[in-house]
């Protein structure tokens, strides 16, 4: 039983491997996905002056809407009147980080990176609770084809950073953290 084997260990001893695995996987996948995105951008641009590290390539599709909501709030003119379809936690976090001086794209990427790290660490522990390999579970999540949505400034990483710990604590019989 995983809980019985944890009884005599410190919190750091229980979380050291998940934190390390989550940090490494988060950094490596960021480097891979960003490298692929910038290489593709550089190869696809036909201008004589090719951009180098244009961060705006990450502001695509819904990312524009989240930035608009973060900057202007929920109004009838925002996102063609469809702003209520976008939940507020990501725009609130985005607004908080832009208030302290970060550019919206950098703030969104930071929120996604931190959220992916948290979700990955808890996924590692959740997989262990069920007798699975935690490292493999994290790698599968982050390298799955839809893993790019955990890199981009979208809500998916933030959602998983809330949902996976909730499942973890719920399965351990701790309803308040869940």
Count the beta strands.
0
Structural class call reads mainly alpha
Low-pLDDT regions: none
Task: Please report which band the strand proportion falls in: under 5%, 5-15%, 15-25%, 25-35%, 35-45% or over 45%.
Answer: under 5%
Query: Span between N and C termini?
Result: 21 Å
Please bin the fraction of helical residues: 55-70%
**How does the major sheet shape up?**
none
Shape: globular
Number of helices: 8
Order of helices and strands: HHHHHHHH
Radius of gyration (Å) = 19 Å
Mean pLDDT across every amino acid position: 86
Q: Mind explaining what this structure looks like?
A:
The protein has 178 residues and is mainly alpha-helical. Helices cover 66% and strands 0% of the residues. The protein has eight helices and no strands. The radius of gyration is 19 Å and the shape is globular.
